[in-house]
Amino acid sequence: MIRPDALTAGLLAAALTTALAAACAHARGGPSPTPSPSPVPSPASPSPHAPPCPPTEVFAPGTISLPDSWQWRLNFNPLLTEAYWSHSEGWWPGTRERAEIRTSRRLPGGRWSTPAVVPFSGTYADMDPFVTPLGTAMFFSSMRPVDGRPRQDMDLWMVRRTAHGWSEPVHLGDQVNAEGYDELYPSADLLGNLYFARVKAPEPGGDVQIWRSRPRRDGSYGPPELLGPGVNTPERWEFNPEISPDGRTLLFVRLDRDDDGLEDVGHGWGDLYVSRQVHGVFTEAVNLGPCVNTAADEYHPTVLWGRGELYFARSAGTPGNFHRTRLRLPR
Question: What are phi and psi of 152, to 5 degrees?
Fold first, then answer.
């Protein structure tokens, strides 16, 4: 049984206020007024008649974004005082090495503290941390043993936020986690609906698709359902889902592989796309365009919905940095 522990009244109220503000701002179709990222060169606008691209910057260079190692899936607590991400020395999809979840605290002046490994990580391959909208739990992927049995694939786990920090990890069970497959990049909305990608492991094979599991009354998660053709295609790979708190907007990555025999339809190898849920169905996904997507590989989107900020990773074959820009969604 999986039940998030209660937070202290003050922290829960602050987290709830932050999450509801984010959901309301997203529902209004615009961000709350906050400073834009510092200007840096960004991709050109798609045409002379299009508005200029918002500036893009590397996030926390030298502290969180590092030049000689790989950083994966950046995420924040609701109060934006803590950052979480995964770190590995090698390119994890190829090495499947030990990877650790790190955290850093926001300091005065917008700086970030020296990273530390979270207490429940550092021994196994732990990836893709996601703090829930209210901050009561964190989902992540891990290759740690289950009931003492070693694993060769990544499963979804959860830790609860308690008055003393993060709890011990809890496996989400065989209803969600399939034997011989990696479950990756969890993301949840305010109702607890859990989105993630699934891929054959340890060697990727077949299609890579995005799934959704709904919470049960006892706090466990039921069998996942495959998202429809607005998101998943039989030809290309879809993964890295990032759902909005209200569950209406889904960002994800679509991959144009060199070996798929298909015409390239995006701007590079991996591009960010968006789909909107209307009457329970996700509409046909739209590319976020050249202000974000380049000839490089863009992946691992994270959105601060109330602030209208998009964070993502970008790599051109070398360790990727986290980037930050204003979120601009196509109509």
Answer: -110, 0
Which are the contacts of 279, defined by CB distance < 8 A and separation ≥ 6?
none
List, run by run, the mean pLDDT of 10-residue segments along the chain (331 residues). Answer: 40 44 42 35 57 96 96 98 97 95 97 98 98 98 96 96 97 96 98 97 87 96 97 94 98 84 82 97 97 96 97 93 97 81
Helix (H) or strand (E) holding 23: helix 9-28
| Burial class for 162, CB neighbours closer than 10 Å (0-12, 13-18, 19+) | middle
Residue 73's region, left for phi above 0, alpha for psi from -120 to 50, else beta, is left
Q: What is the phi-psi region of residue 260: left when phi exceeds 0, alpha when psi lies from -120 to 50, beta otherwise?
A: alpha
Single out the residue of 227, 163, 234 nearest to residue 194, CA to CA: 227
pLDDT of residue 256: 80
Task: Please state whether the peptide bond connecting residue 290 to the residue before it is cis, i.e. omega within 30 degrees of 0.
Answer: no
CA distance 127 to 139: 10
At a CB cut-off of 8 Å and minimum separation 6, what does 17 contact? none
User: What secondary structure letter does DSSP report for 32?
Assistant: -
Contact 323, 43 (CB under 8 A): no
pTM as predicted: 0.87
